[in-house]
């Protein structure tokens, strides 16, 4: 993402997204959804919502960091940056300038699974977004001098988000440990060595491979008429020819055969702990039950202020200051069920790990109460109403599902399926998946802060007056 | 397709002001004297409420830094007939979410609930207890103090936090707007239950409260809810207003060493009030300087042309008294001096010259054309209602927004910047710094 926080790279955002994703769309019918596939394979999905005279347009490419190779990690995200660096018709910087002049907001983000570009505009300005997006889908310049500057910007982004952020470093180490074969082991932003050696030719190859209408989905949400959107899509994207996409080999992570652990040492004050287990993901949203049971499990552990982990570890035992659970079941690659925690002062990572384990064992042994189950479902029910307040999120959810290979029309059923989860099913998935042999533990071991350099307290402590 | 054709497409979109239905803002006072701002809207079965008290961090007293923030936080952890856990469960059981925030001026509680009667009543009754009858239980106080101290320790290893705090102290000196940066571990540890009870009694008064409501209730229901929320709050006048900010005319530069790979820059001074004759000139002017993303001069100079930073910006944050104007960026240590020099030159040139006509047009087009985007959800509208109510802005503040943007001239901006951003008074904090800077000098 160019300016905003990257969804993919940030643990907090990811965990938040997991919670949000547990809520299905509230549709009594599918009347507000329409879809058309153009002759060149571009899929166009329209979600109508007439509450405000505004439209969100998102172009999703099914190409993310999981499609990268050793030596060129980060190229999906670098290309995302380069997409703002001009075509023959729209010179570098003009894309953003034209959208801004129309009163729009725009940005882009890259994740492991996809790269997406979006604009929010007054409803009658959708044509501008389509025109500009269609142009850069086919005609990107990729000038070497622009690349040379932008790769520096991306390295600054990596320094800011990862190199100077202990939790982000830990997450990077965790992914590289949990996944041995699957390319999810690479950070979305790329390894610094790969960024330093990246060339404009790498970006060009990436663009040539993946930026084709038959590898893209356009999602439009807002105060629009579907037929008009389809006509505009045909007008602007229709002329772009389809291309043969590279073969996608199945990427299979071998089954884990024992507990794994990794330690990150970085300057910090507090230790930190992340525990994760491989978990099933959604494949048929109308028939699956395990992913929904895992969603509910995450809710029972951490879905509200009275949920188990916070109640037990933070409030009653006071051995952790922060704790959370996360699970995201819509993805192209393998997914994980995660817990993370910050030990309270005087308590070790080992103690907190044992306490988290104990909470898991309690559920495996005793199950969950009917009240807990009802509470999580009440939140799901409310959440699916609340999310209708955000146009952007509604479009986002559709795009996520489409790139994950899921039928977005089943988002509604997903909600019903979560409501159908039983306490027994929650206990069952806890038993089946949260087992020691499949666990990966990542620990932040704080290094002393380099001497006399980071301590600010003498300057900003109580009573200090300057 | 030629560039000229592209420009043609662009222009047709710009000339008309967007059609935006005016918000029907209703205002009244509760019988206790709390102000209420309400917009009725039945599109979604949701009610959003914001309860904003003049109880921000600027009301911390020296020696008690952190009391305002912790009071707000602790209020939700046990109140009325309910324990901390019971409150959490009551809200979760109806799917409601209670959040909040604090800044120098405001301590806020934000409740989002389904508007159906049973859910709404349970959620609102819980919020009412939190506002009026918090327990401040001792064990919870001790636990939350420990958590806050832990969080503070960790945060103060991070260059962005170290820099932001040093900057706030640099521009505000002894003014209460620097209080949030003066919270210390020792001071927090000394806070007692009586301090929180006292702070609540003095600051959480009906006359210090502004309630914003947005969504699926009638006017009569909104009145009853507001009455319920303000009921039982201590009577009496709200504490005195926040003192005026005096701008220190002598700008200084501090370099705080740090081990991070990037240096962080903070540069600015006390800049803008909520009710301020220069509000719109500074807002529009800042779009061109560093608020307008890729349209802005700072972004062009620092990122686009030199690749020196990922993020570079400037903003005015209007407060009851002068809120901060700040320029910020992060760059690798080796390019610290260059980035700081370019940022300073960009600011100096902008204060000297102001925007070009083309830049001004672009800024206005974006701010006017983007206005409907500011009001496209209940959550966003609630945010504006909360500001309008708390700062006693006129009800047509949003309706007149576009016309006021449109009326700003180049001269207004030049004058406002010269007057409000005197370069000699700009304070600079650099965390990190150029490696071997001393050796080089």
Strands, helices and their partners?
The complex is a heterodimer of chains A (466) and B (441).
Chain A: H1 11-21, E1 33-37, E2 43-48, E3 54-61, H2 75-82, H3 94-101, E4 105-110, E5 115-122, H4 126-138, H5 144-163, H6 166-178, H7 192-196, H8 200-210, E6 216-222, H9 226-237, E7 260-267, E8 272-279, H10 290-302, H11 308-316, E9 320-327, E10 335-343, H12 349-366, H13 370-386, H14 391-403, H15 411-419, H16 423-433, E11 440-447, H17 457-460
Parallel strand pairs in A: 2-6, 7-11
Antiparallel strand pairs in A: 1-2, 3-5, 3-6, 4-5, 8-10, 8-11, 9-10
Chain B: H1 3-12, E1 26-29, E2 35-40, E3 46-53, H2 67-75, H3 84-93, E4 97-102, E5 107-114, H4 117-132, H5 138-155, H6 159-172, H7 185-190, H8 193-203, E6 209-215, H9 219-230, E7 253-256, E8 262-272, H10 279-291, H11 297-304, E9 312-316, E10 323-332, H12 336-353, H13 357-369, H14 378-390, H15 401-407, H16 410-420, E11 427-431, H17 437-440
Parallel strand pairs in B: 2-6, 7-11
Antiparallel strand pairs in B: 1-2, 3-5, 3-6, 4-5, 8-10, 8-11, 9-10
Explain briefly what this protein structure is:
The complex is a heterodimer of chains A (466) and B (441). Chain A is of the alpha+beta class and 466 residues long.
Helix content of chain A: 40-55%
- Give a count of the beta strands of chain A, DSSP E runs of length 2 or more: 11
Number of domains of chain B: 2
Low-pLDDT segments of chain B? 1-18
Biggest interchain interface, per-side counts:
A-B, 92 and 101 residues
For the biggest β-sheet of chain B, the strand order reads 1-2-6-3-5-4
- Under CATH, the homologous superfamily of the largest domain in chain B reads Metalloenzyme, LuxS/M16 peptidase-like
Average predicted confidence as pLDDT of chain B: 93
> In oligomeric terms, what are we looking at?
heterodimer
Q: Structural class of chain B, please?
A: alpha+beta
For the record, the CATH architecture of the largest domain in chain B stands as 2-Layer Sandwich
* General form of chain B: globular
Give helix % range of chain B.
40-55%
How do the strands line up in the largest sheet of chain A? 1-2-6-3-5-4
Uncertain segments of chain A are: 1-29, 452-466
| Radius of gyration from the alpha-carbon trace of chain A, in angstroms | 23 Å
Cα distance spanning the termini of chain A: 39 Å
């Amino acid at each position: 993402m160019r300016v905003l926080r990257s969804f993919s790279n940030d643990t907090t955002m990811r965990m938040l997204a997991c919670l949000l994703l547990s809520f299905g769309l509230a549709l009594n019918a599918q009347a507000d959804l329409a879809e058309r596939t153009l002759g060149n394979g571009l899929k166009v999905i329209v979600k109508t919502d007439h509450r405000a005279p505004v439209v969100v347009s998102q172009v999703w490419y099914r190409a993310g960091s999981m499609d990268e190779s050793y030596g060129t990690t980060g190229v999906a995200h670098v290309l995302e940056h380069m997409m703002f660096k001009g075509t023959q018709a729209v010179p570098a910087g003009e894309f953003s300038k034209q959208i801004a002049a129309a009163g729009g907001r725009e940005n882009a983000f890259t994740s492991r699974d996809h790269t997406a570009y979006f604009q929010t505009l007054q409803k009658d300005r959708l044509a501008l977004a389509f025109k500009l997006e269609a142009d850069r889908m086919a005609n990107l310049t990729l000038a070497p001098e622009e690349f040379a500057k932008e790769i520096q910007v991306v390295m600054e982004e990596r320094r800011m988000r990862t190199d100077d952020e202990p939790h982000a470093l830990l997450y990077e180490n965790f992914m590289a440990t949990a996944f041995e074969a699957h390319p999810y082991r690479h950070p979305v932003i790329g390894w610094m060595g790969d960024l330093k050696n990246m060339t404009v030719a790498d970006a060009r190859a990436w663009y040539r491979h993946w930026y084709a209408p038959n590898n893209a989905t356009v999602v439009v949400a807002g105060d629009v008429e579907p037929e008009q959107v389809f006509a505009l899509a045909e007008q602007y994207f229709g002329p772009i020819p389809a291309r043969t996409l590279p073969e996608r080999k199945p990427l299979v992570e071998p089954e884990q055969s024992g507990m794994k652990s990794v330690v990150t040492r970085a300057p910090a004050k507090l230790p930190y702990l992340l525990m994760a287990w491989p978990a099933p993901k959604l494949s048929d949203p109308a028939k699956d039950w395990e992913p929904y049971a895992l969603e509910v499990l995450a809710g029972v552990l951490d879905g509200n202020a009275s949920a188990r982990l916070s109640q037990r570890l933070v409030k009653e035992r006071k051995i952790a200051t922060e704790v959370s659970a996360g699970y995201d079941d819509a993805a192209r690659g393998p997914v994980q069920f995660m817990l993370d925690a910050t030990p309270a002062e005087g308590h070790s990572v080992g103690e907190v790990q044992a306490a988290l384990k104990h909470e898991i064992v309690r559920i495996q042994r005793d199950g969950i109460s009917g009240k807990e189950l009802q509470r999580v479902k009440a939140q799901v029910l409310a959440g699916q109403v609340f999310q209708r307040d955000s146009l952007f999120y509604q479009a986002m959810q559709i795009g996520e599902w489409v790139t994950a290979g899921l039928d977005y029309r089943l988002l509604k059923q997903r909600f019903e399926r979560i409501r159908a989860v039983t306490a027994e099913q929650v206990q069952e998935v806890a038993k089946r998946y949260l087992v020691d042999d499949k666990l990966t533990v990542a620990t932040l071991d704080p290094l002393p802060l380099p001497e006399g350099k980071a301590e600010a307290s003498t300057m900003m402590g109580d009573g200090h007056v300057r | 397709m030629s560039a000229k054709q592209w420009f043609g497409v662009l222009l047709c979109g710009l000339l008309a002001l967007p059609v935006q239905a005016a918000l029907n803002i209703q205002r009244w006072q509760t019988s206790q004297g709390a102000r209420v701002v309400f917009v009725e809207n039945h599109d979604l079965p949701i009610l959003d409420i914001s309860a904003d008290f003049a109880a921000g961090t600027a009301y911390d007293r020296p020696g008690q830094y952190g009391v305002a923030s912790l009071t707000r936080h602790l209020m939700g952890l046990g109140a009325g007939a309910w324990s901390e856990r019971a409150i959490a469960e009551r809200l979760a059981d109806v799917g409601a979410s209670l959040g909040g925030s604090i800044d120098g001026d405001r301590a806020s509680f934000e409740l989002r609930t389904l508007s159906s009667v049973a859910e709404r009543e349970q959620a609102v009754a819980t919020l009412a207890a939190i506002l009026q009858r918090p327990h401040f239980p001792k064990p919870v106080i001790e636990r939350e103090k420990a958590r806050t101290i832990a969080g503070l320790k960790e945060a103060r290893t991070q260059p962005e936090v170290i820099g932001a705090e040093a900057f706030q102290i640099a521009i505000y000196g002894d003014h209460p707007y620097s209080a949030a940066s003066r919270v210390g571990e020792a001071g927090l540890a000394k806070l007692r239950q009586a301090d929180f009870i006292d702070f609540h009694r003095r600051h959480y008064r009906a006359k210090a409260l502004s309630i914003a409501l947005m969504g699926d209730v009638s006017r009569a229901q909104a009145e009853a809810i507001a009455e319920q929320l303000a009921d039982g709050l201590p009577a009496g006048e709200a504490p005195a207003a926040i003192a005026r900010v005096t701008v220190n005319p002598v700008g200084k530069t501090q370099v705080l060493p740090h081990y991070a790979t990037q240096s962080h820059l903070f540069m600015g001074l006390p800049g803008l009030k909520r009710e301020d004759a220069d509000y719109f000139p500074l807002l529009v002017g800042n779009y061109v300087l560093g608020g307008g993303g890729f349209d802005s001069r700072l972004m062009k100079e620092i990122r686009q042309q030199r690749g020196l930073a990922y993020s570079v910006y400037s903003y005015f944050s209007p407060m009851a008294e002068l809120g901060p104007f700040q320029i910020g960026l992060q760059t690798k240590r080796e390019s610290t001096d260059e980035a700081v020099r370019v940022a300073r030159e960009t600011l100096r040139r902008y204060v000297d010259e102001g925007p070009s006509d083309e830049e001004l047009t672009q800024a206005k087009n974006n701010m006017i054309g983007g206005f409907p985007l500011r009001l496209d959800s209940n959550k966003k509208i609630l945010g504006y209602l909360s500001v309008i109510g708390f700062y006693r802005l006129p009800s047509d503040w949003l309706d007149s927004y576009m016309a006021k943007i449109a009326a700003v001239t180049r001269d207004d901006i030049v004058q406002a910047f010269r007057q409000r951003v005197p370069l000699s008074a700009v304070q600079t904090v650099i965390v990190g710094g150029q490696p071997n800077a001393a050796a080089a000098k």
